[in-house]
Every structure is written in C-alpha cells, then in structure tokens.
Amino acid sequence: MRRFTAMLIASVAAVTAGLAGASTAQAAGADSTHAVSGCPVRTTSPMLSRLGDTNEYFPVPNGGFALWGAGWNGLYSLALENEPWYVNRAALTGSLRLWPGGSARTAELCVGEGEDSFRFFYKGTGQVGSRLLVRTTVRSETGTYTYGTTLDASRAGWQLSPVVPVPNHATDTVQQLSIAFVNTTPFDSVRTILVDDVLIDPWRSRNG
Questions:
Q1: Strand partners, 183
Q2: Among 142, 184, 186, 149, residue whose Cα is nearest residue 166
Q3: What pLDDT, on a 0 to 100 scale, did the predictor assign at position 172?
Q4: What is the DSSP string of 162-204?
C-alpha cells in the first residue's frame, strides 16, 4: 500500500511539474493578436519556442482536444494523454487516438494567404510500417484542392511534425481549410497513433 501511495504521489508530482514548466514557458512569450479580413481574430503565441521554432501559432478549433470530439468528424477515439511539452495551455487533458484505418477531420476554417503552414504533435507506435497520412484540403473560388503528406509513425513516443504547407489557391485574401489525419498502418496492427495540438502559423511568410 505504501509503495502504491508513493507511486501515486510521484506521478502527481511529475504532472504538476510538467504543467508548471508549461506555464513558465508560456509566460515567457507574450500573446498577440492577428487579424485577417474575413476571418476571426486569432490569439497567437510562440508555442514551440522551446523546440527551436520561434514563430507564432494559434490552434485550430479544439486543436488540443480539450472539448473532446467537438469540431472533428471521422472514425476516432480520444486518449487521456497530452503531448509532454504542454505547449497549448488551454488544452492539457487529451489527444486524438487513431486506430489503423481510422481518421479524423476538422471542420472548415478560414485562413488568409499568409497563414500558409501548420504543425502538430504525434505519438508513434514503435512498430515498423506505421504511417500517418496528413490530408490538407483548401477550398476557394477557384476550386477545391487536396494534398497528402505521409509521416513515418514507427518511432515510439511523442514528436513534433515537420512543417506542413497550406497552398494558396485564392485570388482574394482568404480560403477555407480542413485538415485530416488518417492512420494508414496495415490493419494487422493493434497499435494506435495519437495526435495533439494542431497549430497554424500565421507569421511564417513574414519570418521566411
């Protein structure tokens, strides 16, 4: 019983330390606002600065899964596990869980021509052959365009994605974006891929 209590106290302490570190890191970078004509105002911050990316980001609606499945469609479940850097202080409780063949897609959101990339965290399976397909769909007055990026998800543990581009097909200043994640691992696997903190970078074009 004493051993269980000690383990429980240690676990709580570790989570508390992680959250405290997240709060300190977030406080180091002041929030700012970013407005695109025709889109909602965004609140941005350098969420990924501890990981070497000093650009400002804002999360897609429910991009940290604090509201569980709100704003997402597809075949997925949710995990009570957060990416370990706690970069999104508004969403510290959950992540998206994708079984082989499972998928999840955001609702459409308004983006400007300068909001041209996004990043996210994902947790690999530790099994060779695991793959995560990231499907980016943009819709403008010129048509609907879909792009796919496949990531190797065989490495175990959480990692930050590379920068995924959002191509601009609008002749005016805004277009509609949706992002989908698909676990394309062969069906004989029983391991899941987790996704958390889907973040859009509105400043990338300015920072080069």
A1: 132
A2: 149
A3: 83
A4: PPEE-----SSSEEEEEEEEEE-S-TT----EEEEEEEE-SSH
DSSP strand E in the chain: where? 32-34, 42-44, 58-59, 72-75, 77-79, 95-98, 103-106, 109-112, 117-124, 131-140, 143-152, 157-160, 164-165, 174-183, 193-200
Tokens of 2: 């004493």
Share of the chain above pLDDT 70, in %: 83
Instruction: Centre a 10 Å sphere on the Cβ of residue 43 and count the other Cβ atoms it contains.
Output: 13
Tell me what the pLDDT averaged over the chain comes to: 85
pTM: 0.84
Q: What is the pLDDT of residues 130-182, one digit of tens each?
A: 999 999 999 999 999 999 999 999 999 999 999 999 999 998 889 999 999 99
pLDDT at site 30: 72
- Whether residue 165 contacts residue 194, with contact meaning beta carbons closer than 8 Å, is answered with no
Instruction: Determine the longest span between alpha carbons in the chain, in angstroms.
Output: 66
Cα angle value 201/166/47 (rounded, 5°) = 20
The mean pLDDT value for 69-84 works out to 94
